[in-house]
Write a structure and sequence with these properties.
Largest interface: A-B, 20 and 27 residues
Oligomer: heterodimer
Number of strands of chain B: 10
Bound molecules: adenosine-5'-diphosphate, magnesium ion
Radius of gyration of chain A: 21 Å
Largest sheet of chain A: none
Number of helices of chain B: 9
Number of strands of chain A: 0
Distance between the termini of chain B: 27 Å
CATH topology of chain B: Rossmann fold
Shape of chain B: globular
Order of helices and strands of chain A: HHHHHHHHHHH
CATH superfamily of chain B: P-loop containing nucleotide triphosphate hydrolases
Helix content of chain A: over 70%
């Protein structure tokens, strides 16, 4: 298992590249072995009619292709050494992440939800990344892609999960609590007050994975970044400090992105006269 | 029969409403060209077969939705010119489906007033008035029967003592004796406080019991308005005649 956790570390170029020779090698046979786990999920999916098979297959192909391409791509980008290219890449990453999160929403009737997701993710990831840049070892230049891209990617990836979870939960709760919301509105509650529980549950859903991780990190889970650093020879206490920082940043971006999305998206479900737009539920 | 001399408190002029839908298929209007006036202190039963637009009509009156065309006046002022949140406490809707807060009976009553405290005395008093006087305030609300839930919904409304009480099927899915009990509770409240009551029901016996006047809807249109006694003795429209005849058979 440790190898599987360690694997992502290999792709994080923020590590000292010169130490990469010491890294434990992973063969294609090892990867095939890991693929058995995907097969198990596939079997569960068929068995329990999760209807996940197609997405799972696509996901596997994309994981392999995207990561491999990313490896070569990063190598190339690092050589180019241009801030604008880095910025452009980050924007593209943001768009892809928003689209992925949007795809997970069951109800696509909310007008402009794509934009809202992009905005929340973007704000969450940007604020967190700015913190990270200010905190991390003073890179030269400050936007050095070896640090910035993997950091941004990690923050964005978590934020994406977070907004997808929150958005999904928001829609489920709105349907589930329609009677509650309309009863409270009819009692003269504002839309904000009437949707308090919906808001709470939706924001919590996005943050929960982070809170859970923080509870068990280092005990049950060895985070990929840390494992990777340790394997590649970094002092474990330093790797730990990095990991703490990253854990906090991920929680931060998750919190900001979920909160913002839920605030923005909920406002789309009500008219200014505190009426629930029941037809888009 | 109630005061017929009261001032007009609510007036609908040529009101149309179609439920918005996200699909492109245009849906049928739920209400068409609705015109009527309600006097202060009156009790009005809105009757008609299921799906004729009764609930939709009530929802327009407390601005859970706004008409596509036409206008609604409350106290001679367009509904939209009143502050919506205050308006909803003056024109109070008790929806057909009752929201029960997980918790005690008291928790369920307290949602009515967000900021002010309600004393236990007030709670006991209102529970008495809806026939739940024997229930302890700490009663687990999930253990209540359907009839008790309907009474709880009434108790919430009575706590706010609204100018106009909008009741959507206040005795839905209760047998006739239990439903009559609910209607009598509503009548008692109406007579005591002189509020205006607009009650939606698809059961004409309940409409007859509460008295006042009757508005009959069919396919989103008003087909007849009359005093309750006249309506049930001598219905004019074929729809009303059929409605009463069909109901009499079951
Ligand atoms: N939420 C809704 N969305 C779309 N159409 C609705 C909705 N609620 C009611 N309708 C339609 O509006 C019409 C009137 O419904 P309603 O007012 O609930 O009737 P009633 O209360 O008399 O049974 C019906 O044709 C119904 O299908
Ligand atoms: Mg109805």
């Amino acid at each position: 298992m440790a190898l599987i956790y360690a694997n992502p570390g290999k792709w994080i170029p923020g590590l000292r590249l010169q130490q990469m020779e010491n890294i434990q090698q992973l063969t294609y046979f090892d990867l095939l072995w890991a693929f058995v786990l995907i097969l198990i999920i596939g079997i569960i999916s068929v068995w329990e009619s999760l209807k996940f098979e197609r997405d799972l297959a696509i996901g596997v192909v994309r994981t392999v292709l995207q990561l491999t391409l990313m490896g070569y791509f990063l190598k190339y980008i690092f050589k180019l050494d241009s801030f604008w290219i880095i910025l452009l890449i980050m924007i593209v990453m943001l768009i892809i992440a928003s689209r992925t999160a949007q795809g997970r929403l069951r109800n696509k009737k909310v007008h402009g939800s794509q934009l809202l997701i992009g905005l929340s993710l973007g704000v969450g990831a940007t604020i967190t990344t700015i913190f990270a840049i200010m905190l991390t070892v003073s890179a030269e230049p400050w936007w050095a892609p070896q640090y910035l891209l993997p950091l941004f990617g990690m923050i964005l990836g978590n934020g994406m999960n977070s907004v997808a979870l929150s958005g999904e939960r928001l829609q489920a709760e709105l349907n589930h609590r329609r009677i509650e919301i309309e009863t409270l509105l009819a009692l003269g509650y504002s839309a904000h007050e009437a949707s308090k529980h919906v808001r709470r549950d939706a924001i919590r859903a996005g943050l929960l994975p982070s809170i859970n991780t923080m509870m068990v990190v280092g005990i049950v889970v060895l985070p990929g970044l840390m494992s990777g650093q340790i394997i590649s020879g970094v002092d474990p206490t330093l790797a730990v400090k990095y990991q703490i920082m990253v854990t906090f940043m991920i929680a931060g971006s998750r919190g900001i992105a979920s909160w913002l999305l839920i605030r923005l998206m909920l406002s789309r479900y009500f008219t200014p006269s505190h009426q629930l737009k029941y037809w888009i539920l | 029969m109630h005061k017929l001399s009261g001032k007009i408190i609510l007036e609908l002029k040529d009101v149309d409403y179609t439920h918005p839908s996200n699909s492109d298929a245009s849906s049928e209007p739920a209400l068409r060209k609705i015109n009527f006036k309600i006097r202060e202190g009156d009790s009005v039963s809105v009757i008609g077969p299921s799906g004729c637009g009764k609930s939709t009509l009530l929802r327009l009156l407390n601005r859970m939705a706004d008409p596509d065309n036409g206008r609604i006046f409350y106290k001679d002022k367009p509904l939209k010119e009143h502050d919506v949140l205050n308006l909803r406490r003056e024109i109070l809707l008790v929806p057909q489906e009752i929201y029960i807060v997980p918790g005690t009976l008291a928790d369920n009553l307290k949602i009515v007033k967000r900021d002010e405290e309600i004393t236990d005395d007030e709670l006991h008093h209102v529970l008495n008035s809806v026939g739940l006087g024997s229930k302890p305030l700490h009663l687990d609300s999930t253990s209540m029967s359907v009839g008790e839930k309907h009474r709880l919904a009434l108790a919430r409304a009575f706590l706010l003592n609204p100018k106009i009480l909008l009741l959507d099927e206040p005795a839905a899915s209760l047998d006739l004796p239990a439903a009559r009990g609910i209607i009598d509770t509503i009548s008692g409240f109406h007579e005591k406080f002189d509020n205006t009551v607009i009650m939606v029901t698809h059961r004409f016996r309940l409409a007859r019991r509460i008295g006042g006047s009757v508005v009959m809807l069919d396919k989103g249109r008003i087909v007849e308005t009359a005093e309750s006694l006249d309506f049930f003795r001598n219905p004019q429209s074929p729809q009303a005649q059929r409605f009463i005849k069909d109901a009499g058979e079951d």
